[in-house]
Amino acid sequence: MYNKTPPTDELTKDAARVAPRPQTIEATGLTSAFLGDLVEKHLFEGGVLSMRDLVSRTALSGRLLEELLSFLRQEGRIEVRAQHGENQGLGYALTERGRGSAMASLMASGYIGPTPVPLDYYNQVVLAQSVRGRNVTRERMIAAFEDTVLDPALLDRLGPAMNSGKAIFVYGAPGTGKTFITQRLARLFDDTCLIPHAISIGDTVVRVFDPSVHRQSQDNSPVVMLTRGHDPRYVLCQRPLVITGGELTADMLEVQFDPATRQYRAPLQVKANGGMLILDDLGRQRIAPTTVLNRWILPMEEGVDYLSMNTGQHFRTPFDVILVFSTNLQPRDLVDDAFLRRIGYKIGFHALNPRQYHMIWQRACEARSVRYDALLCQFVIDALYKPTATPLLPCHPRDLIGMALDRAIYLDDWVGLTAEALQWAWDNYFVTTPGSNGDTEAELRRS
């Protein structure tokens, strides 16, 4: 398995260099008023909270919180209370005046979470850890795909495409491995990047960190440490891999506002900054392909994305992603030549040759703990594929073997793979056109 992740201490030092811990309120890039409102909202939600609770919730150091709490006490918005039971010691709670102030803050913004980073700070961090600054060599490509059956010529096209920093358009029939291979390109990212919990645009907060997308690194320095490590307003993560397919809608590419919670969430491309964004099954979305593709013309050319919020406020962020379009359709049926010229690489995925098919068949047998029989595999190619002119696709061995074994379990007649069982699997896997004398179409069940 390809794994050349730098040592943890190197990752930690690099993150601390890119985003050092703020030692003063001024260094956070936010005002005392903004931070005080955020602390009030946490107290409104949590009731009586200790200093440790507030450090954990806000991702601010105890030193900064002491300054903010002193300010709020002087304003008569919080009070100190003794805690009992498991949480003995001093705690902080809102006064009546503080509750009114917190409710007003929540009406303006429903965000309650770790302290955001200002937009300009975020933009600097994205550029400092740009995904476009990484070089991919043939050696690294071979190592990353050493456990994958892949045409070397295809590997030698994908590698330079990754170095270009330009969008990549992959196309080919269903089952040729486009999604599988493009997702595995993320293996080439052997380092980490900092993802903010949220960013602030003026007084407006937009959530960025998404646990369903961002995979935390094993090293995320504890927020209670005051001077070492990176700014805890960021999460140290593996470089993002964001995949969207037929579920994509136009609003997912813009800042999303939830009126019920009064919170903003970042669009997919912002969540993908520093990593890869794959638009799978292009042409199958509920919006026209031209609408999706035209959305990316300026970001692809300028490296900047222009966004707006429901208030009409506009802002821009770096567009620092490896953008991959993947489709089962003919590219020229989706877009015109003018758009295709804007895409750096157009890479076709094609059927396997018999040698590659045998290799994948053998690996599928090993995965299901059945004996690999080269003669049986060749029987499938000669007796089933050739008469129907069906292309050899990478997904077939796994699916055909799986269906044959499903039948063996059903019949309670375990004799391993047989020609009869594979013929049965073939007949149930492909769609037969009426009147075609058994010829199969190149339409497969998607799994």
Automatic annotation (TrEMBL):
SMART domains: AAA (SM00382)
AAA+ ATPase domain location: 164-349
Signal sequence extent: none
Taxonomic superkingdom: Bacteria
Family matches, as InterPro entries: AAA+_ATPase, P-loop_NTPase
Protein name as it appears in the record: AAA family ATPase
